Records
---
Amino acid sequence: MQKLQEVDPEIAALILAEEVRQWSKLRLIPSENYASAAVMAATGSVLTNKYSEGYAGKRYYEGQQYIDAIESLCIERAKHLFGMAHANVQPYSGSVANLAVYMAVLQPGDTVMGMSLPHGGHLTHGWNVSATGKLYRSVQYGVSKDTELLDYDAIFDLAVKERPKMIIAGATAYPRVIDFAAFATIAKEIGAVLVADVAHISGLIVGGAHPSPAGLANIVCTTTHKTLRGPRGGMILCDEPWAKAVDKAVFPGLQGGPHDNTTAALAVALKEAGADSFRAYAHQIVANARTMAERLAEHGFRLVTGGTDNHLVLMDTTTVGAPGKPVAQALDRAGIVTNANTVPFDPRKPFDPSGVRLGTPAVTSRGMKEPEMRQIADWIAGAVQARNDETKLAKLADDVREFCDAFPPPGYPPGYSSGHPVPLI
Ligand code: DSN
């Protein structure tokens, strides 16, 4: 940080301000987390200087003595942790990983079936504005209007009618367990390839807090920085028959040189995720989300599906008088960071939706447990009520900052506090 301050004080000051923000706010965006100091050290290492197109033992540039060892170690750890035969750890992001899977399995124009974005899927699950919805014939399933749960009978009927070549099971805003066995039965019935996109829940899976798709899905893709708590990136795991096609789709199909610094950081994160303490962490994420959901419901929020089984809570805030965007903005001013989100069958537009999505991975990384979740839910209710009262919101933000000082996140040095920040690097 000292070097950065000398060379570019403007950027250094902005990074420091972001460090303080991440320390002094309750970060409840369910796809965000705090990477450890070890993960960040690898991310910021000399590996950023290297090019290594290709795979271990077959590279297009020389000087790969250490890169090959790093990538191979990362792959072995990924395979072991997820219980899959093959891993590709090069995707730059979850979206690129997903696109590589499309390239490996489908030809343009082939039919793919994924969860609709407004019901909790992802852009790359075939939504119409994404390349995946433009280059392929996309059929979308959603949740039941009555229960807001995935209706596996309806998904089966749709699959039999449309006969997709590939089915994607996975979500970004679904608060319940995904039944990968039910998806496997559906895919088997029509001879489709089953892809599990576990980006949100991969940390829960390796920690034993959500059923694994290993042995059920042919291909599993994930980001590496959400509940898994690694660096920003993507990863694909698969059965042996898909290994070659997946590797070819990632490189040279979609990418050039892998980001070796990210690969090393992912290897570190996978080592961390194999520890017993990570299992406890994954289960605490779920216990915390349940506690927060229960308390929010007591405060009168309508929760999509009535609660949660995983790391996230989706609430319809129109029942307490305001749609998601102004509520998320007021919460942010009170030091509680969430995101506005559509709820299933939302009559409002995606940028001004009816709901707010929140989750517990980051606050659980800070060591917060059930009592803290109840306190946070009470603050959320207070902030929503006071959403037009800037004095009250500012006072809440002060209380939140003081509270956060007692729960140092991973990655921050001893002695750090919101009043006396110490640069992280
Ligand atoms: N942006 C991610 C999320 O917030 O869920 C999905 O890619």
---
Amino acid sequence: MSKTIAINAGSSSLKWQLYEMPAETVIAKGLIERIGLPESVSSVSFDGDKHVTVKDIHNHTEAVAILMNDLKSLAIIDHFSEITGTGHRVVAGGELFKSSVLITDEIAKQIENLAELAPLHNPANAAGIHAFRALLPNATHVAVFDTAFHTTMPPVAYRYPVPNDYYDKYAVRKYGAHGTSHMYVSQKAAEYLGKAPEELKLITAHIGNGVSLTAIDGGKSVDTSMGFTPLAGVMMGTRTGDLDASIIPYIMVKTGITDVNELIDIFNKKSGLAGISGSSSDMRDILKGREEGDEKATLAFDLFINRIQKYIGQYLAVLNGADAVVFTAGIGENSGPVRKAIVDGLSWFGLDIDESKNIVGADGIISTAAAKVKVLVIPTDEELVIARDVEKLSQ
Ligand code: AMP
């Protein structure tokens, strides 16, 4: 038995899960938030208890040291050396990384160099990697890329119709994201459907605060809704999704915004459900507002559903039909009303939900027996995929 830690480092947060491997048992998990801000919060869930500490944590290196010391002080581990593997979620792997890799000095440098494609995420991912490599010099360190699953997309899906040079010289193309989640739920869906992934055409819908849909043919991603960055695709909690690029210069002139990055920030952080509702990016608030007759919340909900339906329609065309649509992530796993609203508008395509199965805690097939295209709910588990990849690459 060995202990492996799965790390998901964001720009100001670090989410972790400690596993006993190969048993795949979760020993403890936690989240450090507000890194770099006053009063950072570190929480550790272990043995049915949640331990929370509040203190200033200035950067990811400090966060990793605090997390490792918490593991010791809570007697989750006796020595750092018990952790023999670390797995790191890396958002952008560009065209370079088609699968998970052992991290060397060179790989760590390449991950840093890919920051241009994910300026908020890759530097944080790299900081987490450096901190763990320094603290656990004898452990196996593995990078798991959000983009890797999508590297099977054909050029017809990943190229944009812009001058060739932009691709040839600057690698402007669709990379997608959430790949680990799409891969995991598609493989689980195949188990539920009693078929090999190679025999199936699936549309996976990762609907959380970030939202992306993927068309999967024979186990391979052939198209996905996020693009060059995660800003593209369907409307999300705070992101616009697809937008006419001409809006950018127009809004800049109208509002006096002179730095285009300021506008991109608004498209990433103040748009989507938050932008339309004017109140919240959280689907639970939107559903409540809609129930109470709030017109803006209702419009936000309607736009959100409409954009997802349109992408499912696109992918039914891309795949020339599908065996199943799979819902996952915070909203996809937990909101029956959202799933129902999406599927109800797609009955012509042969999607049909069984209301008695579209319930809280649903896991598996929720469509009627007669439905031509099955509908499934599958809780995603990106951390488990990361821990498994560490295990695989440690052999
Ligand atoms: P994630 O990014 O996967 O953590 O998902 C976050 C989103 O899931 C937020 O918009 C939450 O409001 C939403 N969510 C979580 N639980 C529920 C629920 N029971 N009903 C509706 N939305 C939910």
